[in-house]
Design a protein that fits this description.
14 strands; 4 domains; single chain; 5-stranded antiparallel β-sheet; alpha+beta; Nucleotidyltransferase, domain 5
């Protein structure tokens, strides 16, 4: 009685995902081709580990189809993959993973177990030729139909299970699912806080060969930076590097095909572009290709931002383009500028809540002047070398001028009524020099005089209601209806027009005060030298979402998403 095994092999590339299955007599070791399947890779760029995992899913689905449709009893089933990351994902299926990985790992383990999965080298994987493509003529007698040579031997000579593969590789590949620029991260870049520190580290490592002593030289640092950037490129564009090296066409899914990249003699990837015959410097004509998603490039942008004295996005971008072509540069610089404390202080924008409704006391009719009063400034006023009589006279003249100022529009039509002034409410007439009544003969009848005065007062109040009040219906400033409220505990800068922006003092809002419209109007701020009450229009939050409206956005017209090739 013979036993039948069915080995399944899976593999994937940027162009295709392939699966092939065989039947094997365990006793005679005879291998027979059963079925092969190839699927085109998705148009949207997908990382190689994800494609390999998807190919494994197709492998278990093909196994179910064979078991369902084939009449031969199959005793054993083996699955082979040439990517150890897939095995680690299956081993860690019980842990928290990316949604894409978790869903596919669960489907695979529903139809198979870990002891049925094996690792095979890429050159020994029979479906590898399927992912690279081959002609019909060369298919006859190929390893695709006949299987690998080692599969015709005893199981002891098969490749050993690779469950102890590099753990770091799996962890880095897991992070690759979220960010394609971290395919095979070599270093723990998060340990470094600046681009200079990484460059110095590489420079000192290079000194082990020469055993030099003393401070680093400029040439050493420059050489270390070039090596560092090659590491970054290898992590950011691993497939592109292989395609350029092997003179293959770069896949359009890599988003860099339009840049025509090439590899320099020092193995640096540069942009070929169209400026070969220009008078620009070589670095400007063929800049180094990078992506803003890489952590080292983020540190490079921070250094450029500081070296250019926190200038605007477009200025720093233009300076960087003299040497680098960084994909997603503009958006990265905006994000960097929005997080920079110095730039926030320089572009501090106070909160501008909508103008509050007028108080009821300011809208009352038929009330005596100064029934409701309020001042925002009150002495003392220091006056020197003036006698009391002179000061009193000056104050009266100033008062007369102020109370004679028109409150409504002044018409040039002589038949129109005179404009309302504060004197109409204080004296009942336009000015102190004008008579109260047109004729003194009517004063002999007090009742008529009082009635006339009442009618005159009613006329003034009606004019006040019709002509003056409607002017206040419009908000002259702070007209935005939806403005975020200042919250307790927020860090703020105290806006002071008497000092420069870089000298604004920082404090924390410990208490906020809302108006009747539930909008925060003022806050109590704790400073280093005390606590103060300030209106929110004099407070600028330190942390806010987005980039300041004052940020230079030149050149953004027509820009699309971050996938754009233009930095």
């Amino acid at each position: 009685m013979y036993k039948v095994e069915t080995p399944h092999f899976t593999d994937a590339s940027e162009e295709a995902m392939c699966i092939v299955a065989y039947l094997q007599d365990e006793t005679a070791l005879k291998l027979t081709y059963v079925i092969g399947n190839c699927r085109v890779a998705p148009i949207r760029h997908t990382t190689i580990p994800k494609l390999e995992l998807q190919a494994a899913v197709y492998g278990v689905r093909l196994k179910r189809q064979i078991l369902r449709e084939h009449d031969v009893k199959i005793d054993k089933v083996y699955h082979w993959t040439d990517l150890s990351t897939v095995l680690h994902w299956l081993q860690s299926a019980h842990k928290k993973q990316q949604v894409f990985v978790a869903n596919r790992a669960a489907e695979i383990l529903e139809s198979s177990s870990m002891d049925k999965w094996r690792h095979v080298k890429g050159i020994e994987n029979p479906v590898d030729i399927g992912t690279r493509g081959m002609s019909i003529e060369s298919l006859t007698g190929s390893v695709w139909l006949n299987g690998p040579v080692w599969l015709h031997t005893d199981e002891e000579k098969w490749p050993k299970p690779c469950f102890q593969a590099n753990k770091v590789e799996a962890e880095q590949a897991t992070s690759t699912v979220a960010a394609e620029t971290k395919l095979h991260q070599t270093f723990d870049w998060d340990r470094y806080s600046s681009f200079n520190s990484i460059s110095n580290f590489f420079a000192y490592c290079m000194r082990f060969k020469t055993q030099q002593m003393g401070p680093l030289k400029a040439a050493e640092i420059h050489g270390a930076e070039q090596i560092l950037l090659r590491f970054v490129q290898a992590e950011s564009f691993p497939n592109a590097s292989k395609s350029i090296t092997n003179s293959k066409e770069i896949s359009k899914t890599l988003n860099i095909a339009k840049l025509s990249p090439f590899i320099e003699e020092d193995r640096t990837i540069r942009v070929k572009g169209r400026l070969k015959h220009s008078n620009l410097d070589y670095n400007a004509k063929h800049p180094i290709l990078l992506t803003a998603k890489h952590p080292v490039v983020q540190l490079l942008l921070e250094r450029a931002h500081r070296d250019n004295l926190h200038e605007g996005t477009e200025y720093v971008r233009n300076m960087l383009q003299q040497e680098y072509w960084i994909i997603g540069l503009r958006n990265a610089l905006r994000k960097l500028k929005s997080k920079c404390i110095k730039c926030r202080r320089r572009n501090a924008n106070p909160i501008q809540p909508p103008m509050a409704d007028l108080l009821r006391e300011r809208l009352d009719e038929h009330v005596f002047p100064f029934t409701h009063t309020g001042v925002n400034y009150f002495g003392p006023i220091e006056v020197k070398f003036l006698r009391h009589e002179v000061l009193s006279t000056t104050t009266c003249l100033v008062e007369q001028n102020l109370t004679a100022r028109p409150l409504t529009a002044v018409s040039d039509d002589p038949e129109d009524l005179t404009a309302l002034t504060p004197n109409h409410f204080l004296l009942g007439r336009e000015s102190a020099s004008a008579p109260f009544m047109p004729s003194s003969e009517r004063y002999h009848d007090l009742r008529k005089s009082f009635k006339t005065a009442q009618e005159y007062a009613d006329m003034i109040w009606k004019r006040w209601t019709r002509e003056y009040l409607p002017q206040w219906n419009q908000r002259s400033k702070w007209s935005k209806e939806h403005v975020r409220n200042l919250k307790e505990g927020e860090l703020v800068w105290m806006v002071d027009e008497s000092v420069r922006r870089c000298e604004y003092k920082m404090g924390r809002a410990i208490q906020v005060f809302k108006g009747r419209d539930d909008v925060v109007r003022s806050a109590r701020v704790k400073m280093a030298h005390g606590e103060f009450n300030r209106p929110v229009v004099k407070l600028a939050p330190v942390f806010y979402d987005g980039v300041s409206e004052n940020e230079n956005r030149a050149g953004d017209v027509g820009a699309t998403k971050e996938q754009k090739h233009e930095p």
